[in-house]
Amino acid sequence: MGQETLSNLLRETRRFAPPADLAEHANVTAAAYAEAEANPEAFWAAQADRLAWTKPWDTVLDWSNPPFAKWFVGGELNVAYNCVDRHVEAGRGDKVAYHWEGEPGDSRTLTYADLQREVSKAANALLELGVAKGDRVAIYMPMIPELPIAMLACARIGAAHSVVFGGFSAEALRARIDDAQAKLVITADGGYRRGKPSALKPTVDEAVAQTPSVENVLVVRRTGEDVAAGDRDVWWHDLVDRQSEQHVPEGHDAEHPLYILYTSGTTGKPKGILHTTGGYLTQAAWTHHAVFDLKPETDVYWCSADIGWVTGHSYIVYGPLANGATSVMYEGTPDTPHRGRWWEVIEKYKVTIFYTAPTAIRTCMKWGDDIPAGFDLSSLRVLGSVGEPINPEAYVWYRHHIGKDLCPVVDTWWQTETGAMMISPLPGVTDAKPGAAMRPLPGIDADVVDEHGNPVPDGGGGYLVVKRPWPSMLRTIWGDDQRYIDTYWSRFDGMYFAGDGAKKDDDGDFWLLGRVDDVMLVSGHNISTTEVESALVSHPKVAEAAVVGATDPVTGQAIVAFVIPRGGAAGVEGEDFAAELRGHVAKALGPIAKPRQIMVVPELPKTRSGKIMRRLLRDVAENRSLGDVTTLTDSSVMDLIADKLPAAK
Ligand code: ATP
Ligand code: MG
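# adenosine-5'-triphosphate complex -> structure
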């Protein structure tokens, strides 16, 4: 960002109060804010008490060596025991943990008792392979039940897992295996995507040819396709199936490594984020309980993310299982075999809480309103969003077409680094505003500051920071403490800087404005890409938009917009449409935000977790060769876009 603070252009006045019934029975009430503020450590200690500890902690927080935090010092617990065994011991063994739905239409049901047996067998199998407490295990799998089982087996024996997206290349996998020095890789022959088997094992074979740390590769049979058998390969069904169903979990230190997860790479080289045991599980479980108002006896919860992303770690595996929830887990893509597949799954399992990403919502808008209208979605009661700022128009569409104007929408801001939700409405408390993540959760001290680290007044914009350690914070970047300090703790003294821009509205509520790296400097004004994109998406013919600042001789930077029209919209080609959109943005935000150039494109470059990679669009707009594309879903998208942009040819 330049010297001035971020301009605050968008005015949004819609408000949605919590449903009275939900508010009346909410898990968490407004009192939690004051309680947490009075004594944050006591507040988090009370949330940690929701878990079972084998040894109590001596100190809630040790911050004597910042920025290296220790939470629940001296305490011991087993994450797998907390997620599985304790529910069985409490007589809830028959309760469903996962309704799993395969893409081809096959399904499996796993109760907590099933999960206990499977996780124990897998833990015994890992031990037989020589994996020990403190080792690292790389996991490269499709969205099948063996994936959470493998993660929990690692957690049970105290080996840290490193889950790598099933869509990543051999080189991306190799780099992550090497960085963590993983001893074992757990994979599958493949999974189903877009109606056909998608192989994984050949990618693993290629990766492990160059990773000396790997001793074995454990392979689940999912698709039944032929795989090459290497010396180190072991079939899951040969090894795991014959193991004992008994495994006694031991307590691990609260600060014992639980997992490493690499960030999505939107802003550059991925970072290996380290999460540990006690604080992580405390915040993942509490936020899942509070922000979704989860009632484990009656709710059916579904998070549509991939487990290879942090959202899947915290809100498909650890948070929901720690709370004894019944979840849906789905293997495939939302448009296979038809574009109503998600809504069909919600109808089938009577899902009550649904958590997805803005990119998915905008895709559904693009496909058309009639698709969700064909399914019974009346079981839903709470909707969530994560991953990018949600454009107000997408929020209202989600609330109306999926939530039938009855379900609160919680827009949850957090990161791989934060481990769990940080800023979000509470569904029974907050009067929500479309596009706003609203307020830091109880126990979280986040603020928006100017370039000197001073809080901006209400109505101002700047940098989002966290001022106090939180239980599920990253502990370091794996193997690189200095990079941890430099990346997160050196921009502002004593504060964690997340990399995101934000503003406070006149009520002091928070609006996320995207990465500060993406902020555009136009004629001396800092303009957020998010606000211009949201203005474009509020045009009835636009489903998705990505905006970047390109060097301009007159204005410093000029706004270049890439837009995808809504399904069925007519008159979306040519100069007239571009002029119409420019006028629309000028009216919503002011003439300063008017794009210089508008390109209608068929697709946008996105990471596997669904985020728009603006840095690549900036490369195109400024006619440069493309930066790191290894975490892109589909790199051919960039060719489609370059074809549309005369300057880039
Ligand atoms: P990298 O750091 O490698 O570029 P990444 O930041 O995309 O990867 P994640 O940790 O998955 O990887 O994403 C966190 C980021 O996602 C946040 O910093 C923020 O920019 C964005 N984000 C997540 N949720 C929200 C939300 N509700 N509103 C606005 N932005 C969000
Ligand atoms: Mg990031």
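# post-check
Residues 263, 267, 415, 499 surround magnesium ion (ligand 2) (CB under 6 Å).
The first strand starts at residue 59 and ends at 65.
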